[in-house]
Amino acid sequence: MEDNCAVILAAGEGTRMRSRKAKVLHSLLGRPLMHYPVDLCRRLGVKRILVVVAHQAEEVQQALVGQPVEFVHQGEPRGTGHAVRQAEECLRGFEGTVMVLAADTPLLREETVRQLVQAHESAGAVATLLTARVADPAGYGRILRDKQGRLRRIVEEVEATAKEKQVAEINTGVYCFAAAPLFEALRRVQVSPVKGEVFLPEVVQVLVKKGQVVQAVLAADATEVQGINTRAELAQAATVLRQRVHDRLMREGVTLIDPQATYIDDTVQVGPDTVIYPGVILEGATTIGEGCVIYSNCRIQNSLLGDGVTVLDGSVIVGSEIAEGCVIGPFAHLRPQTRLKRKVKVGNFCEVKKAVIGEGSKIPHLAYIGDTQMGEKVNIGAGTITCNYDGFTKHETVIEDDVFVGSNTNLVAPVTVGKGAIIAAGSTINEAVPPDAVAFGRAPQVNKEGRAAATRKKREAMAPPKDDDD
């Protein structure tokens, strides 16, 4: 589509969302709404993508950093026609097709738009719009046709008569225009006396009156053109899009035990032969390798999992890299900047943060490892913590290969434990441990023989008298 440009309308406030945030910035399966039409244009190979902004323009532009788009500022929003008119200067001299899309229509499929463009170009039309028949047309412009079924005009709901409001065919807000006729017609459109805005659909009536070729193409699936105006509609779109994501993954060889109880963002990639149990949430820039098993009620966000990783029930993984063959959980928490090398085990009720864990090392249960460089084949006993924060700054712990750390150990950073060292259970270590050393960092045990009986007798004497009813 090298001869096509796109104008994406993203200037609206979206008052029905009842939000301080612009409607097009609301998230849908891991991405802002406005990303969907931009990505659609990229897949179509559109030559230039112009995004019209007004409300919260800076935030909208920030959300599209890195995307191949140009921004057009509308100033005070005065309708869809006024918004498109702002792109005229940017498209001066362009003689191809201008597609107009709405930033709040995320379900539109690539094949539908291709068919629209093909119909537009094959008919030599100056304008072609996508329409749909819906059960409840409230809120949409209605398509009015003549007795021969030809498009006569589009009437906005605020200006429609009671009879016109009964029409079920609606304008979806998706158009193809020949560039020059579009902007010429826009200059002829009058401001609506009802809302004081310039409506883009009025261009159709101007072009029809001039006897130019204008046509309407009916969408095969009305779901695709559903606009997002409320949070309920956002949730409905999420359901449709999520099913598309699940269908894609299952076609690619992923097993979803219960797709209806699984929540996977549009941005997630999963390898074949991976099994995902109910209640799993996969978010953001997450990639799961082949042959993994993700058990119930886990949440994985912005993380990379290698092949053959097992994540047991109730675990949370954020901003982490996990190499092949690792076992996580149950009820483990991997926080950002965690890196697990091959065949690491992080067991139940363990928390790891900003740490590199070497190949084959084990943190089986009830431990906190933060700001740590850990070598290979290390064993961390239950109740071990790295004391990485002194109240002012974070410090690093280094644990070299083949170290055994006994249960209930405190490693007070900054500290290094040398290769092959053994740390006795219950120790507090605040000095370097040499390689192959055994470190004891606890008070000596003292036994007072016979003291237990005397203690029990003393407690009995101090106890209050028992009530007869006890």
Report on the architecture of this protein:
The protein has 470 residues and is an alpha/beta fold. It folds into two domains: 4-225, Spore Coat Polysaccharide Biosynthesis Protein SpsA, Chain A; 255-439, 3 Solenoid (UDP N-Acetylglucosamine Acyltransferase, domain 1). Helix content is 18%, strand content 29%. It contains eight helices and 39 strands. Strands 13, 14, 16, 17, 19, 20, 22, 23, 25, 26, 28, 30, 33 and 36 form a 14-stranded parallel sheet that branches. A seven-stranded mixed sheet has the order 5-4-1-6-10-7-11. Helix 5 (179-186) crosses helix 6. The longest helix is centred in the middle third of the chain and has 21 residues, at 231-251. The protein starts with a strand and ends in an 8-residue tail after the last helix.
Q: What is the strand tally?
A: 39
CATH architecture of the largest domain: Alpha-Beta Complex
Helix content: 10-25%
Shape: elongated
The whole-angstrom Rg is 32 Å
**CATH superfamily membership of the largest domain:** Spore Coat Polysaccharide Biosynthesis Protein SpsA, Chain A
Count, helices: 8
Mean pLDDT: 94
CATH names the topology of the largest domain as: Spore Coat Polysaccharide Biosynthesis Protein SpsA, Chain A
Overall domain count: 2
Terminal residue distance: 89 Å
Q: Characterize the largest beta sheet: strand count, sense, and whether it forms a barrel.
A: 14 strands, parallel
The top level CATH class name of the largest domain: Alpha Beta
User: What is the SS-derived class?
Assistant: alpha/beta
> What is the strand content?
25-35%
Which blocks of ≥5 consecutive residues have pLDDT under 50? none
